[in-house]
Design a protein that fits this description.
- This protein is mainly beta and 369 residues long.
- Among the domains are: 76 residues, no CATH class; 49 residues; 111 residues, Sandwich (Immunoglobulin-like), CATH 2.60.40.
- 6% of the residues lie in helices and 36% in strands.
- It has two helices and 24 strands.
- The strands form six sheets. Strands 17, 18, 19, 20, 21, 22, 23 and 24 form an eight-stranded antiparallel sheet that branches. It has a five-stranded antiparallel sheet with strand order 10-11-12-13-14, with no helix packed on it. Strands 1-5-6-7 form a four-stranded mixed sheet, with no helix packed on it.
- The longest helix has 15 residues.
- The model has no long low-confidence stretch (mean pLDDT 89).
- This is DUF2793 domain-containing protein.
- Pfam families: DUF2793.
């Protein structure tokens, strides 16, 4: 006859055995310890300093002292001493410190998924103390339980990091998130050591900078994104123009305007075109003349190109000599702000009379910067 039971290894009373109560009590103590099994913890490596009768623990890996060599076994304080029970595959216990159950898989105790907080969880791979959740699969699906779904990655302080890291053979190649600050950024690396911030979004303004954005107004590096204030489109082609250091445009491409003395077009390269219609009046019997104040000042009168065209009808209607009697038309040396035009009659033709006048269309081309 066997001396123990096959499942719990409980001692059996033998025929003609003396002091049968000892064997019986030992079996009852084992049942009391193992049935409805609850242990305090499963990571302790040595006995507690002040244990109580009936305390039970799963001995942790690398146990020392009185528990040396008992890792994975159930230690129960019975009758003032530690009694050890070796589990079989499938044994189940509730672990108070975890608030969850654990099952012995034949080699080690494993927390039961879905019950209480787990310290680690590996799905088709091993988790560790750093990567406490590890998944090995072709894809991972996170779907909604209602209308939507959010993934939340929290950090303790602004100087900490919460990000998504993309790796090749366990070496970092791209990272996006808030790395060491609250600004959101995308960083890339060719070797996992040297990193470049491609894009960074300022948390206060929402504006971006980084290696993927123009560094200066005349930065034409291939592949870089154009900044709105340094590029041109329908919204800023026609706008006030201005010039920065190194003759770099800082405003629109074209600026068009009108003042009391004419119209102007300013170009981003510094070109200025002014036009107007002015009146030439009689100042002498031989000529009519008029002074034009430019609607925008030029910077160098020596570079100006100035042209004029008389309105033939106004001459014939308001001047004593007709158009056919007019000769040389000139202008005096201009200043940065004005120029005077003169129209002469041909010698021997009718003189200009007092009150004679004619209209002239005038244009000046030069530079504003």
């Amino acid at each position: 006859m066997s001396q123990t039971t096959p499942i719990l290894d409980l001692p059996l009373i033998q025929a003609s055995q003396a002091q049968k109560h000892v064997t019986h009590n030992e079996a009852m103590a084992a049942l009391d310890a193992l049935v409805q099994l609850v242990v305090a913890d499963m990571d302790r490596t040595e006995p507690p300093a002040t244990p109580a009768e009936g305390d039970r623990h799963i001995v942790g890996a690398g146990a020392t002292g009185d528990w040396l060599g008992k890792s994975g076994q159930i230690a129960a304080l019975l009758g003032g001493g530690w009694v050890y029970y070796s589990p079989s595959a499938g044994w189940r216990t509730h672990v108070v410190s975890l608030g969850a159950d654990a099952v012995f898989d034949g080699t080690d105790w494993q927390p039961v998924v879905g019950q209480g907080p787990l310290t680690t969880l590996g799905l088709n791979t091993s988790a560790d103390t750093t990567n406490r959740l590890a998944v090995s699969a072709e894809a991972t699906l996170l779907t909604h339980d209602g209308a939507g779904h959010q993934i939340k990655v929290n950090k303790a302080t602004a100087a900490d990091t919460n990000s998504l890291l993309f790796q090749t053979n366990w070496s970092g190649r791209a990272e996006m998130g808030c790395a060491g600050e609250d600004a959101w950024s995308i960083k890339v690396s060719a070797d996992g050591t040297a990193w470049t911030t491609a894009l960074r979004v300022d948390p206060a303004t929402g504006l971006v900078d980084g290696a993927a954005v123009q560094d200066t107004a005349n930065d034409t590096t291939p592949g870089r994104l154009m900044r709105a204030d340094w590029g041109y489109g329908p919204g800023n082609l026609l706008a006030p123009v201005s010039m920065g250091a190194g003759a770099v445009p800082t405003g629109g491409v074209l600026e068009r305007g009108t003042t009391a003395t004419g119209n102007f077009v300013k170009m981003a390269d510094g070109t200025l075109i002014c036009t107007a219609e002015i009146t030439l009046t009689q100042v002498a019997s031989s000529r009519i003349e008029g002074t034009w104040t430019f609607p925008v000042s030029f910077i160098d009168p020596a570079d100006l190109i100035i042209t004029s065209h008389l309105d033939d009808d106004s001459v014939n209607d308001h001047c004593t000599p007709f158009v056919t009697s007019l000769g040389l038309r000139t202008h005096l040396p201009p200043s940065t702000t004005a120029v005077t035009f003169r129209q002469y009659r041909i010698a021997g033709m009718s003189n200009f009379a007092s009150g004679d006048y004619a209209l002239a269309r005038v244009m000046a081309v030069g530079r504003w910067a």
